[in-house]
UniProtKB/TrEMBL annotation:
Compartments where found: Cell membrane
Name of the protein in its database record: Sugar ABC transporter permease
Organism lineage: Bacteria, Pseudomonadati, Pseudomonadota, Alphaproteobacteria, Hyphomicrobiales
Chief localization: membrane
UniProtKB keywords: Cell inner membrane, Cell membrane, Membrane, Transmembrane, Transmembrane helix, Transport
GO cellular component: plasma membrane
Species whose genome carries this gene: Azorhizobium oxalatiphilum
């Protein structure tokens, strides 16, 4: 943001960057949505509902924040939902076998990160388009998870572990604190570090980025590893929240995560977006779904609404690029 003098009037004039304008627009949209829901139903502004919205938004943000960095490079990770499934099931197995939530948590995080690294290697080294590589990985992970679980459910975890997903501190859900921590860390990484700026450069113009000496392959592996690691984080929080693991856990989360990133202002073409914008996108999408529940809208309409939002967000991005 810069301030320039208005020569004709002598008054200071504030110029906002395009990214800042997009964030402000989305904050206004979230505010208007909150206002509309508060007028439509008295249940919206209750403390229980507000905390529930924040908890649900945090769970979505964990998955979408890692996906944001992938999309900033012009890529896409369709395997994040399946990644949650396998990571959660392996973590649950270790917890039940050893009685150690720490070992189980490390297993889930490591599994997610390894899957992300495999995606990154396919994209960076084998030159497989990210859509194809991660779509194939999605089915591989589903197959492994379903075979491994064989229709069984693992449930009943230590109370201390369950606090990660369902506990409170000072009246605020633990996942909300985790979300704030990852939001700050992700924003600083993307906006204030050399690696973060290189990720933006790769998405904006990969040819120019390569000519300037940016190690594109290593940065691509990094962002997919980060996306996988955040899927591992999400798997642990979901596991602790649900207190059970089965083969299809996380299966329906990929589309909402992509929707949150796009609603937050990221471009599928790369180079545009922010982790903070993704946080706002996750909040808006959660508010929409929460409002539908409060207004007793049939839950079968929620996937349709999510799909419409994704299409609209992509159309806005393409319209803006054509106009520019």
């Amino acid at each position: 943001m810069s301030i320039a003098s208005n020569a004709s009037a002598g008054a200071p004039r504030i110029h906002l960057s395009q990214d800042m304008q997009q964030i402000i627009y989305r904050l206004l949209a979230a505010g208007l949505l909150c206002l509309a829901l508060s007028l439509a139903t008295d249940a919206f502004l209750t403390s229980n509902n507000i905390l529930n919205v924040l908890r649900q938004a945090s769970l979505l943000f964990f998955l979408a924040s890692g996906l944001t960095l992938v999309i900033l490079t012009g890529g896409l990770d369709l395997s994040v939902g399946a990644n949650i499934g396998l990571s959660a099931c392996l973590a649950a197995t270790v917890i039940k076998a050893t009685g150690s939530p720490i070992l189980g948590t490390l297993t889930g995080l490591a599994t997610g990160c390894v899957i992300g690294i495999c995606n990154g290697l396919m994209v960076a080294k084998l030159r497989i388009p990210s859509f194809i590589a991660t779509y194939g990985m999605l089915w591989v992970l589903h197959g492994i998870t379903y075979y491994y679980m064989a229709g069984e459910t693992i449930h009943g975890f230590p109370p201390g572990f369950r606090q990660i997903g369902s506990g409170h501190f000072l009246g605020i859900p633990i996942p909300v604190y985790l979300m704030v921590g990852f939001l700050v860390a992700g924003t600083v990484f993307a906006q204030r570090t050399v690696w973060g700026q290189q990720i933006y450069a790769i998405g904006a113009n990969p040819v120019a980025a390569r000519l300037t000496g940016i190690p594109i392959d290593r940065r691509l592996i990094l962002v997919y590893a980060f996306s996988g690691a955040m899927a591992g984080v999400a798997s642990i929080v979901f596991l602790a929240r649900l207190n059970s693991a089965e083969g299809d856990i996380g299966e329906a989360l990929t589309l909402p995560a992509i929707a949150a990133v796009l609603i937050g202002g990221a471009s599928l073409f790369g180079g545009v977006g922010s982790v903070f914008g993704t946080f706002i996108g996750a909040l808006i999408l959660t508010l929409v779904l929460n409002g539908m529940n409060l207004l007793s809208v049939n839950a079968n309409w929620q996937p349709l609404v999510t799909g419409v939002i994704v299409i609209f967000a992509v159309w806005l991005d393409m319209y803006g690029r054509r106009k520019a």
